[in-house]
Amino acid sequence: MDEGSEQLQTTARARVERQALNAGLLDAAFAVISYSDFDRRFGPLPHPLPIDLDVLRNRFSESEISDACRRVIALLQDAYQAGDDVLSNRLTYPESIHRLRQGHPGFSEECYDRTVNQGLFMAR
Fold first, then answer.
1. Which helix (H) or strand (E) holds 13?
2. Contact criterion met (CB below 8 Å) for 84 and 123
3. What is the pLDDT of residue 2?
4. How far is CA 37 from CA 49, 73, 77, 92, 121, in A?
5. C-alpha span between 49 and 113 (Å, rounded)
6. pLDDT at 8
7. What are the CB-based long-range contacts (under 8 Å, 24+) for 52-59?
8. Cα–Cα distance, 92 to 83 (Å, whole number)
9. Distance separating alpha carbons of residues 86 and 96, to the nearest angstrom
């Protein structure tokens, strides 16, 4: 890996960790899980290490983190369908966001937007 791509990965990882330390529980868990399970996998090689959920343990209880993780995983499991619905013209982008918001309440608009974008990437 060249120095430039290593710096970009370090910067991206630090940005996600900062977001996890400052966001509400659902958005913080989304940032960590999305980065660790999606962003790392599809970014440049070699893939950086995942971010551990330990970054949340100073702010939230184990049961809160566990519940948030379950909800994030459920949202991300709907990513492919959301992207496919948009690509197939079954739903518009805003309609897809609305469907995710209805099925998975409590996340920020950025989380829904990132979920649809991940789905668009996967469904291509």
1. helix 3-22
2. yes
3. 53
4. 11, 10, 12, 26, 14
5. 24
6. 54
7. 53/29, 55/17, 55/20, 55/21, 55/28, 56/20, 56/25, 56/28, 56/29, 56/32, 59/21, 59/25, 59/28
8. 10
9. 7
DSSP 14-82: HHHHHHHHHS-HHHHHHHHHHIIIIIHHHSSSSPPPPPPGGGGTTTS-HHHHHHHHHHHHHHHHTHHHH
pTM: 0.86
Residues of the chain with pLDDT under 50: 1
Sorted by sequence, the CB contacts under 8 Å of residue 48 that are 6+ apart come out as 9, 10, 12, 13, 40
Q: Are 75 and 115 a contacting pair, CB within 8 Å?
A: yes
State the sign of the Cα–Cα–Cα–Cα dihedral 42, 66, 64, 72: positive
From CA 17, how far away is CA 49, in angstroms rounded? 12
Residue 108 is classified by DSSP as -
What integer pLDDT is reported at residue 6 of this predicted model? 55
